Amino acid sequence: MNSTMTPEEIKSAPAGNAEKPPGAIPKPDHKPAPAPAVSAARPVAALTVKNLSVFFGKHQVLKSVSLDVQARAVTAIIGPSGCGKSTFLRSLNRMHELVPEARMEGDIRLFGQDIYSKDVEPVIVRRRVGMVFQKSNPFPTMSIGDNVTVGLRLNGISNRATLAERTEKSLRMAALWDEVKDRLNAPAVSLSGGQQQRLCIARALAVQPEVLLMDEPASALDPLATSKIEELILDLKKEYTIVIVTHNMQQAARASDQTAFFYLGELVEFGPTAQIFTSPRQKRTEDYVTGRFG
Amino acid sequence: MDAQMTSAPVSTVPVAGRAQSGSRLADRAFRFLCLAGAMAVGLLLVLVVWQLLKGSHLSMSKFGWKFLTSKTWNAVTEDFGALPFIFGTIISSIIALLIAVPLSLGTAIYLTDLAPPRLRQPLTSLIEMLAAVPSVVWGLWGLFVLVPALQATLYPMLQKWLGFLPLFQGPIYGIGLLTSGIILAIMILPIVTSVSREVLRSVPNLQREAAYALGATRWEVTRIAVLSYARRGLFGAAVLGLGRALGETMAVTMVIGNTPYIGPSLFHPGSTLASSIANEFTEATSDIYLSSLFELGLVLLGVTIAVNILAQVMVRAFTTAETRRVA
Amino acid sequence: MTVSSTNHTFRKFKSLALNALCIACAVLVILPLAVILFYLVQKGASSLNWAFFTGVPKPAGAPGGGMGNAIVGTLELLLLASIIGVPIGVLGGIYLSEYGGERLNTWIRFWADVLNGVPSIVWGMVAYALVVLPMKGFSAWAGGLALGFIMIPLVLRTTEEVLVLVPRSYREAALALGLPQWKTIARIVLPTAMRGIVTGVLLAMGRVAGETAPLLFTAFGNSNWNHHLAQPIAALPLQVFSYAIAPYDDWNRQAWAGALVLVSLTFLLSSGVRLFLGNRLQKNT
């Protein structure tokens, strides 16, 4: 599997990336990229999804979904319960495979690379596409600091200085650093619900994923914590591509650039958020966003 | 069931009156009966401690605390001490734990996370069947199959390769401390496995998903999200196994050699608290002999109760923490 | 940060290796079951004949004879143990499920579980002190009592667990119709849970049927049929034990046969019934 980087690749090209292990998606050296020369050019697609169908046993949960997730932007996935939003999200980092009898058809590419190709392992995909869950799930037997660095240590990074630097950086990005910097050794469960969720975000960010998936990240939180998370998302999109599933339409309208509306496993409509909420093209979309059902 | 419910049809149910007080008496009587049944638990505890104390009285007053530290066990001179049996009990139990806990843990991990879903129930049932094999049957098999096999193959090998350790020195009889430890390990496998499995199952899936989402391999998920989370419950499972091993009698009696012994060689015959009681109770000719056996029983009871309390507390603490967290 | 390929290959390999290790553990844990069944059948099946089931032990060294008295003895002891263990255990379980308060129940459950861990030989000693000494002799009563002691906490816990599963609405409907509480329990709750209670009792019986240690100095064993419950009585596990440690080949052979019958009995009571009635009870007894 060779790297077929799209010409509009905004990440700096791999420098000394001599090792190209067979089958692994070559991971470019992740330096903070220069400001994107996007303005007039077509926006870059971080993820391209073509005709994605997902089956659990005989039951088809997603029906031929196609969309492009724009890089460095927030894409919201909305729709009523059971419409396949979470399944869609999880197919982006191959987490749906954890369910027995899960099967997919179609094509998903991360910056041009097929993540379902036979030589690609889920473990690698999940490192590059991170995930934050509905209910915060820090590892309770680890401290705050250890939670942040667990992904790094798994990948063999043990240098204390590097770990410390990454910890601070990730916690700052998650807007948690000031609150925990003096107690990195405290158990992760000593934090409040909202703080724990931001810790999980920091943990996901520490491994420097290219895309961050968020499955209703604020649904278990109070309004104050929720607004903090939303601010965070707006901040993060400067560097990361974010896909967020949400039940809360106002949240989608506030925080996202593009919105996809799912209904009963189908992608009904996909477009710029402003357009979806003010002048949707499909009747079903309009019914949903105006609250006629949901 | 419906027929029974109409035994008191609505229209004739008296609101007050003699019929009601009669039924209230029946209610009280029934409740009292049930309470008596529940109190049996407390009564049994008191009974067992009291009877053992009573039986040991003679021995306790003659030997005092020396009983626990004395190595002598002589029926002729009527000098008795529990130390060799305490030693044998501890050694055989430790050996059993060292063998059984890792095996049980690996099996529990397999049953919880790795095995195909269709295999899980049948395998679990097989392990529970293992628990239904009586102690005396293990002893029979141990005596006629395991002992000769170990004597011919494993033990000489151990002595050859690891003979520099005092543990593996000395004559090889086949029966002895190590053999009893091995048989005990087989016998505690079912309980340690099943409790470990329950513990691992109660780890929330969300924890596993968090690890997967970070790009962890299957084993790393088990290590980070499951094992460290379940530490305390797993330790409780091991302690539960220890409690079981301490009290095992028949299989041990049949393969341990029943010789009071304190020393480094694992090949040497030994004796445990339970096995010596089993072996000598009907031969105890004098009152002091019998009383000393009762005192061995008291020591055994004390140790097993203490260990079981610890185990129950640990496993309960883990499981209640889990149900509280989910709720 | 580059994903080092060596790091990744190592992790992948480590994961596969450790998972294989877990599979090996599972195999090793199941293995003893296969091994013991194999040996029981191989060494014991050939000795099973009519004489074995109906005869009594011949004097030491003389060939032939059987374990008929031991089999019947075990059944008698089980009956005695159940007479003691089942009513007390079931009533106690009813109390915990239907009447008890939160605190009291937690305590009783806790101590019942601790009691379940008391070595069975200790119960033999208690029965010895309570029955054998005053009666100045071994007896079926003593053996039955020792086994009954073991059954009580077992049956209590399993009964409680099953009763708790009966939906509240059944009780409420009955009480709303004016049934007194005791009738509600006896006529409605108990019958609904009966299957589970019976399973629990059979499980306890299976556990107790295989016990040898408590019988060593209570029932003591008998080389003939038992005619009085106040006399010593043979029991299958006792017989297996004494034949196994005896120096006579014929007796050793019969020990295997007796063990095969014993294991069949305990399997039937513990596992067979459970498989048949459905795995309602996940208890680590």
Q: What does this molecule look like?
A:
The complex is a heterotrimer of chains A (294), B (327) and C (285). Chain A has 294 residues and is an alpha/beta fold. Helices cover 31% and strands 23% of the residues of chain A. The longest helix of chain A is centred in the middle third of the chain and has 14 residues, at 160-173. Mean pLDDT of chain A is 83; it is low at 1-24 and 26-40. Chain B contains 14 helices and two strands; from the N terminus they run H-H-H-E-E-H-H-H-H-H-H-H-H-H-H-H. The two termini of chain B are 35 Å apart. In chain B, strands 1-2 form a two-stranded antiparallel ribbon. By secondary structure, chain C is mainly alpha-helical. Chain C contains ten helices and no strands. Chain C has helices at residues 5-44, 50-54, 68-99, 102-115, 120-135, 140-164, 168-176, 181-209, 236-245, 249-277. Mean pLDDT of chain C is 88; it is low at 280-285.
Give a brief description.
Helices cover 31% and strands 23% of the residues of chain A. Chain A has 294 residues and is an alpha/beta fold.
List keywords for this structure.
A: alpha/beta; 6-stranded mixed beta sheet; 10 helices; disordered N terminus; C: 73% helix
Query: Which oligomeric form is depicted?
Result: heterotrimer
Average pLDDT over all residues of chain A? 83
Distance between the termini of chain A: 43 Å
State the largest interface. B-C, 103 and 104 residues
Taken from the alpha-carbon principal axes, the silhouette of chain C is flat
- Radius of gyration of chain A (Å): 19 Å
**Helix/strand structural class of chain C:** mainly alpha
Instruction: Characterize the largest beta sheet of chain A: strand count, sense, and whether it forms a barrel.
Output: 6 strands, mixed
Q: Helical percent range of chain A?
A: 25-40%
| Shape field of chain A | globular
Give the uncertain stretches of chain A in residue-range form. Answer: 1-24, 26-40
Count of beta strands of chain A: 10
Main pleated sheet of chain C? none
What is the CA-based Rg of chain C, rounded? Answer: 24 Å
Strand proportion of chain A, as a percent range, falls in 15-25%
C-alpha termini separation of chain C: 53 Å
